[in-house]
Design goal:
2 domains, binds pyridoxal-5'-phosphate, globular, Aspartate Aminotransferase, domain 1, Aspartate Aminotransferase, domain 2, 385 residues, seven-stranded mixed sheet, alpha/beta
Amino acid sequence: MISPSQRMSVVKPYVFAKLNKRKDELKAGGMDIIALDMGSPDLPPNQEIVETLVTSARNPNKHGYGGFTGTAAFRKSFTQYYARRFGVDLDPEKEALPLLGSKEGIYHTAFAYLNPGDVALIPDPGYPTYTSGTEIAGGTPYFMPLLKENGWLPDLDAIPAEVLAKTKLMWLNYPNNPTAGIAPLSFFEKAVGFCKQHNILLCHDNPYCENGYDGYVAPSALQVPGAKDITIEFFSLSKSHNMAGMRVGVILGNAEAIKLIGMLKTNVDSGPYIGIQDTTIAALTGDQEWLYERQETYKERRDIVVAGLRAVGCEVDLPRATIYVWARIPPVYTTAAAWGEYLLEKKGISLTPGTAFGAHGEGYVRISLGTSTKRIREAMDRITA
Ligand SMILES: Cc1ncc(COP(=O)(O)O)c(C=O)c1O
């Protein structure tokens, strides 16, 4: 046996890897599992986007390395999108770093900044990679509770001064996974001011900005005047344009941070496949109307889930954005894991216990809307039966 690195002592199996193993065992035993756990969109991108990928794939000259940061047109497509969508001006050469999906960018940001003893402020509940990236890099997470009574926003004023003195990064994510909370621009103004005051890099993760309902349009933290001095924002096409499998995203904003993270990345990976770069350009600069129609599909599913959960006594708010429903467990259960296990083992429904996202997720479950409407309806019928 060769001993693993000390670094591996903080590495745990990724939450969905563990869950998928149990699902596979149950499926092998003949159980029909409805997966409402991972936030993986079941729908494809629109036809124009798919055709672009097919055309690129047929071109024999497009199968080599795609360049560390891709083509100029690819980089520019992100800044064009930010200009049109948010009114934010960015330099595609210095203020945009393409990613192979935002997950790796989140991980690499921790490695670019954190020494042992350095702190990263992390929302709890929150996307697990903020914590695992911090810990594997040797940094220390400080969890900011997201509470319903605070509208799922962290109380920045409650962070102790001695923690702030050691803090280098602050992670925020609105529209929020898993709570489906949203943040007004005034909250980002406060966060930018706070990070400037305490010399913290504000890392805003914005993959759900195109997943608003009922007319809600999510902002970018970069809309705050002067945000670029201290802020980077992560954007991804996984949820915005149903392109999760293509692995494409970007970091936008502060040029110094982008240069540093980019330098690290050139040692670790290479840019996306050129066909995916072409596809991204088509997705970000082409027709966006289909996104509204796609949201109508999610909205129908959201309403089915909210009605089903309320029928069994769950307290649940109607999400204004994201592809998730965040619900309190029925009062007869004491832990999220217990209800999750019951639903999986007895009803064949796989959802994510809130504790997968942090200690403050206890008492909640997250339901993903990235499964067909028919199957979501069936899952709610099984739950209410
Ligand atoms: C908040 C948040 N950030 C980042 C990601 C990673 O997205 P990707 O790596 O597909 O761009 C996800 C995926 O679910 C997410 O929910």
